[in-house]
Specification:
The chain crosses the membrane at residues 78-98, 110-130, 142-164, 170-191, 203-222. This protein is α+β, with helices and mostly antiparallel strands and 479 residues long. The chain folds into 3 domains: 7-59, no CATH class; 71-230, no CATH class; 235-473, no CATH class. It is 36% helix and 29% strand. It contains 11 helices and 18 strands. It has helices spanning 33-42, 71-102, 106-132, 141-166, 173-192, 202-230, 295-300, 370-373, 408-411, 447-457, 470-473, and strands spanning 7-12, 18-22, 25-30, 57-59, 235-241, 245-246, 252-263, 269-285, 309-320, 328-329, 334-344, 351-362, 366-368, 377-378, 395-405, 417-425, 430-437, 460-469. Strands 8, 9, 10, 12 and 18 form a 5-stranded antiparallel sheet that branches. The longest helix is centred in the N-terminal third of the chain and has 32 residues, at 71-102. The radius of gyration is 37 Å and the shape is rod-shaped.
């Protein structure tokens, strides 16, 4: 008979593992008889070794039938924990990569890299879960799993909080809500098992996780909330009249009008819609008057009231877009254009009024697909999705594109938003405007939704006006 070193199988520990010794040396731990045979085979013992032979194997603390391990429960925990950690890793990386490389602010990019780092930690935790609920070869496997679970709870809670602000169903909703409930289950498991026991420096690890979560939250708040609010915006518009010239052959006065725009603030600005108009104004004069005329009409229109003039009427002499939708201006950038307006010399206008208006969006609140937005769609074109029969509405130039959110964290919790801008010319006047909403070209734009988006994207309107007496441009002393 071949002489072999005696094998000793120790009593089960609290998790059902039995220590296996060959002689005085502990070589491994076993969950079951099958596991024990595998250990012995790796150490040179035959597959058919009689484990009941007391000369070969010594059983202490229970015989060969004492295997209290609930393998199905342990493996289910490992599988569910690892699957959730891997899925959370994928979610964090999907959210973090766009911000890490394309965020509009440094804080946004830093947040993106923190999400990627969190994803790496989730992957490491998934691997550590096999060791912690296995034979625990590494004494830090529990700490790594704990780190992954705390990151998952923090991130999914943030996603759910952001989602409840709008409560809009998206494809990502199907991902982060199951992640959220899984993270609560995982937290319950690690707390129930007190996974931090035996972990070196558990307080430092918890402090590191808390610091990372706070840093990510501060960066997100700074880049998404504080910075877009604190950074000042200022778009300066100016309208100036040039020197009028009499036409030598026709009874027309050529009046140059210079339009000027400058971004005087510290934030890049998108022009969503703009337009200029020159009016000829007439009014009925009353020499003796004891009270202001047209007071009610002026108040309703938020306009001017005059003591000796009533029944104001304005006639459009020239109108059109200025820079056009989709242009954007960096701080300090400016643009100037000169328009020429022809006015009949014999016209009966009292005053010429010029105006320049623009609706603007801060570029740090979102980005616009300018390739799409810069192309006008015609309302009278039957192939356009903005087609409107000319008998029902005036002819419009329509500009439409998606607005990307300033951070991918918001993108995954809300529906897409679209900017729609238009410029129209009717027989008497021009009209323009812009809005941001979930409107994609069909249906109706809800006014309450539009007002909310105005605040979210900080849309604002700026204007400039200039007036000149009509007599100044038809003075015969002019060249």
């Amino acid at each position: 008979m071949e002489h072999r070193t005696k094998v000793t199988v120790r009593p089960p520990d609290g998790r059902g593992l039995r220590e296996v010794r060959i002689g005085a040396e502990t070589v491994d731990r076993a969950w079951s008889m099958r596991d024990l045979r595998g250990i012995l085979r790796r150490h040179g013992y035959p597959q058919d070794l009689d484990l009941e032979d007391k000369s070969e194997v010594c059983w202490t603390g229970g015989g060969s039938d004492a295997w209290p391990d609930h393998a199905w429960r342990r493996r289910t925990t490992i599988g569910f924990m690892a699957f959730g950690l891997v899925a959370c890793m994928a979610l964090l990386i999907i959210i973090g990569v766009p911000d890490a490389f394309d965020a509009m602010t440094f804080a946004g990019r830093l947040t993106g890299f923190l999400f990627i780092l969190g994803g790496v930690a989730e992957g490491a935790a998934a691997i550590a879960a096999f060791d912690y609920w296995g034979k625990r070869s590494l004494n830090i496997s529990g700490a790594i799993v704990l780190l992954g679970v705390l990151i998952a709870v923090t991130v999914t809670t943030l996603l759910v909080f952001l989602w409840f602000q709008e409560a809009e169903a998206t494809l990502y909703t199907l991902a982060f809500f199951p992640h959220f409930f899984w993270s609560l289950w995982a937290l319950w498991v690690v707390v129930r098992e007190k996974i931090w026991r035996g972990t070196p420096y558990p307080t430092r690890i918890a402090a590191g996780v808390a610091a990372t979560a706070i840093l990510a939250g501060v960066n997100f708040s700074y880049s998404s909330l504080y910075q877009p609010t604190a950074a000042p915006t200022n778009l300066a518009l100016q309208v100036r009249y040039g020197t009028p010239r009499m036409d030598r052959e026709r009874p027309v006065v050529h009046l140059p009008v210079t339009l000027h725009l400058k971004n005087s603030g510290s934030v890049p600005l998108y022009i969503l819609a703009d337009g200029w108009t020159v009016y000829g104004r007439t009014g009925k004069y009353v020499e003796k008057s004891t009270e202001l005329r047209d007071r009610r009409e002026a108040l309703e229109a938020a306009g001017d009231a005059a003591r000796h003039v009533e029944s104001f009427k304005r006639t459009t002499l020239g109108t059109g877009p200025f820079t056009g939708p989709g242009n954007w201006f960096d701080p300090g950038e400016e643009y100037t254009a000169q328009k020429m307006v022809e006015v009949p010399r014999t016209a009966k206008y009292d005053v010429l009024e010029a105006s320049l208006d623009a609706m603007v969006m801060r570029k740090d609140r979102g980005t616009i697909d300018l390739d799409t937005f810069g192309t006008a769609q015609l309302s009278w074109d039957k192939k356009s999705r903005f087609y409107c029969p000319p008998k029902e509405c005036s002819e419009h130039l329509v500009y439409h594109a998606e607005v990307a959110y300033s951070t991918n964290l918001i993108t995954v919790t809300r529906k897409p938003r679209y900017v729609t801008s238009w410029w129209a010319l009717d027989p008497e006047d021009s009209d323009w405007g812009a809005s941001i909403s979930t409107f994609k070209g069909k249906g109706l734009v809800k006014d309450e939704e539009t007002q909310q988006e105005y605040r979210r994207y900080d849309l604002f309107t700026v204007d400039a006006q200039a007036s000149i007496p009509f007599a100044d441009i038809v003075d015969p002393r002019l060249p």
